[in-house]
Amino acid sequence: MAHGSLTAQISELSVPSLDAKTIYIRLQLLHTPWQWFVAEAERQEDDTLFFGYASALPGQSEWCYFNLSELKDAGTLVYDCEFSPMPFSEVKQKYNL
Fold first, then answer.
1. Where are the domains of the chain?
2. Whole-angstrom Cα distance, residue 86 to residue 80?
3. Sheet of 48-55, strands arranged across
4. Which residues have CB under 8 Å from 78's CB, separation 6+?
5. Nearest CA-CA partner of 28 in 75, 79, 67
């Protein structure tokens, strides 16, 4: 079977938009440009695994998994108590990401 006819039979890959993901928590590492926007969390034995957007300087930002313990080990972690849940598309605009 020719490559073209094979791919014609398969529907295109679809990637859900991360812009629509709700961000629930904003964390910052004190006195640094690092901030994390949490979209998902899973409690583990003695830690919490997060999925969200990690941002530092332009070009140093990405969606990733990270542990609460790792963030605490990096320095003084600040919980933004004024942050309200919003779609990531709004987070990008509000925090210039």
1. 20-94
2. 14
3. 62-67, 48-55, 35-43, 25-29, 77-79
4. 27, 28, 29, 30
5. 79
Q: Which residue(s) pair with 25 in the sheet?
A: 38
**Around 1, how many Cα atoms within 13 Å sit in the side-chain half-sphere?**
7
**Bridge partners, 86 (sequence order):** 23
Alpha-helix runs per DSSP H in 1-97: 3-8, 68-74, 88-94
pTM of the model: 0.81
Residue whose C-alpha is closest to residue 21's, from 86, 79, 65? 86
Per DSSP, 12 falls in state P
The answer to whether 60 and 46 are in contact (CB under 8 A) is no
pLDDT, tens digit, 9 for 90 and up, residues 26-84: 999 999 999 999 999 999 999 999 999 999 877 789 999 999 999 999 999 999 999 99
